[in-house]
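Good morning C.,

I know you're traveling, so I'll keep this short. The sequence:
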Amino acid sequence: PDRVRLSRRATARLGVVREDARGLVEDPHTVVVRHGDDQARWWTWAGGRANAVLAAALARVAPGLVDETDRFDNRYLRLRGDAGALDAALTAARREFGDDLRGVRPEVSEEAVRRLKFAELLPPDLAHDTLAARTADHEAACRLVRRGVVTVLG
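The tokens, ready to paste straight into the viewer:
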């Protein structure tokens, strides 16, 4: 924004980050960078809540596509196997959950449910649904799926 002023240090750091991420952005698409034959990262830059929706949708329609141990963060989803399978999986997800992906409920751990304030007063399904809604950004996930994917060899 116009009224935001950055320090020289912040400006320099942003320059480094932009340079490092240069190959990970292909506007208007998203980028999948392959690492060897069986690993890839889908650089969504969509945020953790949108990536939680995408990871849950892909886990339902293409089990094993999203890495189970290091699934996602705010910037990417880690994929296993053929990165080319992502397009087909996204098409299947839109078919199963709708174009807006509203039918997707991100996974919620039992630990998170236990830590939910007043969890003992809620039925378990309601507690899970409450946390899933808090950890989901369906709008951002929907916008991302519509952008398309470019695959780059790592």
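Safe travels,
E.
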